[in-house]
Design brief:
Helices cover 26% and strands 32% of the residues. By secondary structure, it is α+β, with helices and mostly antiparallel strands. It has 5 domains: 3-107, Rossmann fold, CATH 3.40.50.20; 136-197, ATP-grasp fold, A domain (Dna Ligase, domain 1, 2-Layer Sandwich), CATH 3.30.1490.20; 202-445, ATP-grasp fold, B domain (D-amino Acid Aminotransferase, Chain A, domain 1, 2-Layer Sandwich), CATH 3.30.470; 455-569, Glycoprotein, Type 4 Pilin (2-Layer Sandwich), CATH 3.30.700.30; 584-656, RNA polymerase II/Efflux pump adaptor protein, barrel-sandwich hybrid domain (OB fold (Dihydrolipoamide Acetyltransferase, E2P), Beta Barrel).
């Protein structure tokens, strides 16, 4: 392209058509470049941090997918450009075209490129035309024989692990195709799927590319994103361990640049590859025509702000000299990112909801926290449950992994169930440290899913919690405020508090001494150094603990060193229990009932899907825990249900009797 024909269009006001941490991330760079920023938000996000970060915020009535309303907002506030972030409208070619037709700057590739690469089948054809190797596949779902088993059923539109099913045998194909179609239609509005060869021992490696309107296309190294659950990445790193070992960096990055040059790519983008772990051969998967969730690891090892490059290119400028020189200069150290999700790894990674009672990263080790939440934020069912991206950068991979694990462990976090313990366990696992990071890592190595409550841990944490509670009692005292806690003019029994951690319960006794210390239990001596409404510094038998504490109703979220526990304060007088329905089969999360596959009186077998729920755009199949009979059905397709809602009554039979009616469903999301 002739540079003389390119019109430079400076951006003064930028609207971000997205929410959460990516909106905050884009605002940060835009402000550094001197741009005014505009946020759009829905009612559920009215108190979210990203709304406050912007110079101006406008409420949407039609939601984040209503491109027409977003364009109207952009016109009304005088925005020059729209940045779509990722997800939502970021890979919507029609919206990109509407933005350009409205005379605004679209921060991303051209609508034509988005359309062609958004169709995975068209993208495969383009890759083959550019000489890039691809996996055996078929657009005909009845042509599984030419692909071979095991195979993947994949949505032709979209990404992020949605609309994807592994199918091991021909008998499972029909169900896999149907489930993938439903999820693809729900997530992307297009139920087209195709078949692709599944490589069990593989790596997910992607190349960051950057193109401009002047014909320049460069790469900024590769990332490995093999640690996944439900086909969604949870840990990403740069550079890739397998690319380093195989010596294939030149080949894989050249393939990415060649493909993007052939399609006239502009802005940031990612070319994704599957690498066979045995042969180190790589195969093209797709092109993501947007900024990736894991872009910070590339920024950390290159020193290039990818959002800044997007905004420069969108305004008509060339790729910066700093970005253009990365390919020749190499990468600096190692960066690893972990995605912190509100989900329960011990329960098939089901999404979790609730109010974040505590969210306080430790000052050390120094990490990058890209977060869309804060203390008090509500995690609902409407959006992806990612709370934050946490990134460590260090000279070596081993140091980066240990640094990130410690930072996650030291995060003071409470109020929702998260995958924090799993992430730390993966990062400290010997296989991860050795670089053995195939896509089946979690299933193969079985890292610890969560910290398991035990009596030894509760006996260690209990006195710290009890002494913090006595300080709170003194703070809230309305009489005898100058008298030490528990003081009497005669010797009476010590004060006591009973705490429960998970299923483990422990009672702590303590008595104030005349010198200001405390006798804990029968013989332990505790010295209280500092007490605040959210922390305590106490020494017990020579062991000093400096803890962060958050009280949420009858729960204490207690962080000591690298341990965080939620302790229940057991009331002295227990309220009467509400009897549950015997054999009750309950919803493990809020969501929508997609299907009820059984009727009252119907016999079922262990593992049979009874109900299919949708939550956060993912399907969750609720399976029978044993053979039995469905005694009663309480819901129908289309019903909205809350967490714990009774779906049906299940009566186990034979050896299954006594197994209980709690859902132990399979999550096929």
């Amino acid at each position: 392209m002739n540079d003389q024909t390119i019109q430079l269009r400076p951006i003064t006001t930028l609207l971000v058509a997205n929410r959460g941490e990516i909106a905050r991330r884009v605002f940060r760079t835009a402000h550094e470049m001197g741009m005014r920023t505009v946020a759009v938000f829905v009612d559920a996000d009215s108190d979210a941090p990203f709304v406050r970060d912007a110079d101006q915020a406008v409420r949407l009535t039609g939601g984040y997918l209503n491109g027409e309303e977003i364009l109207e907002v952009a016109r009304s506030v005088g925005a020059d450009a729209i940045h779509p972030g990722y997800g939502f409208l970021s890979e919507n070619a029609a919206f990109a075209r509407a933005v350009s037709d409205a005379g605004l700057i679209w921060v991303g590739p051209t609508p034509e490129v988005i359309a062609s690469m958004g169709d995975k089948l068209a993208a495969k054809r383009a890759a083959r035309d550019a000489g890039v190797p691809t996996l055996p596949s078929s657009e005909d779902v009845g042509d599984a024989g030419s692909v071979g088993f095991p195979l993947l059923v994949k949505a032709a539109a979209g990404g992020g692990g949605k609309g994807m099913r592994i199918v091991a045998t021909a008998e499972d194909l029909e169900e896999g195709v149907a489930a993938a179609r439903r999820e693809a239609l729900s997530g992307f509005g297009d139920d087209t799927v195709f078949l692709e060869r599944y490589v069990a021992r593989s790596r997910h490696v992607e190349v960051q590319v950057l193109g401009d309107s002047h014909g320049n296309v460069v790469h900024l190294g590769e990332r490995e994103c093999s640690i996944q659950r439900r086909h969604q990445k949870i840990i990403e790193e740069s550079p890739s361990p397998v690319v380093e070992v195989a010596g294939t960096r030149e080949a894989i990055t050249s393939a990415a640049v060649s493909l993007c040059s052939s399609i006239g790519y502009t802005s940031t983008g990612t070319v994704e590859f599957l690498v066979d772990d045995d042969t180190h051969e790589f195969y093209f998967l797709e092109v993501n025509t947007r900024l990736q969730v894991e872009h910070p690891v590339t920024e950390m090892v290159t020193g290039v702000d990818l959002v800044r490059e997007q905004l420069r290119v969108a305004s008509g400028l060339e790729i910066s000299p700093e970005a253009a020189s990365v390919a020749g200069a190499g990468l600096n150290g190692v960066a690893i990112e972990a995605r912190l999700y509100a989900e329960d790894p011990a329960n098939d990674f089901l999404p979790a909801t609730g109010t974040i009672a505590a969210f306080e990263p430790a000052s050390q080790p120094a990490l990058r926290w890209d977060s869309g939440v804060e203390t008090g934020s509500v995690v609902g069912v409407h959006f992806d449950p990612m709370l934050a991206k946490v990134i460590a950068h260090a000279p070596t991979r081993e140091e980066a992994a240990a640094k990130l694990a410690l930072g996650l462990e030291r995060l003071h976090l409470g109020g929702v169930v998260t995958n924090r313990d799993l992430l730390a366990s993966i990062l400290r696992h010997s296989s991860f440290v050795a670089g053995d990071t195939t896509t089946d890592f979690i299933e193969r190595t079985k890292p610890r899913l969560a910290v398991t409550p035990d009596i030894e841990g509760l006996e260690r944490l209990g006195p710290v919690a009890a002494l913090w509670l006595q300080g709170l009692n003194r703070l809230n005292a309305t009489v005898q405020t100058t008298v030490p806690s528990g003081w009497r003019n005669a010797r009476l029994p010590a004060q006591q508090v009973t705490l429960r951690w998970g299923d483990v319960e422990h009672s702590v006794t303590y008595r104030a001494q005349r010198d200001g210390s405390f006798l804990v239990g029968d013989s332990s001596r505790a010295v209280l150094h500092t007490w605040t409404p959210n922390s305590i510094d106490v020494e017990i038998d020579g062991h000093r603990a400096n803890a962060l504490v958050t009280l949420e109703k009858d729960q204490l979220h207690l962080s000591v060193g690298s341990t965080t526990a939620t302790l229940m304060i057991v009331p002295r007088f227990s309220p009467p229990e509400v009897a549950g329905v015997s054999g009750g089969f309950v919803a493990p999360m809020p969501g929508t009932v997609l299907e009820v596959r059984v009727a009252a009186g119907e016999p079922v077998t262990a593992g049979q899907t009874l109900v299919v729920l949708e939550a956060m755009k993912m399907e969750h199949h609720m399976a029978a825990p044993s053979d039995g009979v469905v005694a009663e059905v309480r819901v129908a397709g289309g019903d909205q249900v809350e967490n714990g809602a009774l779906l049906l009554v299940f009566e186990p039979s034979g050896d299954g009797a006594g197994a209980g009616g709690e859902n132990q469903g399979e999550n096929n999301g």
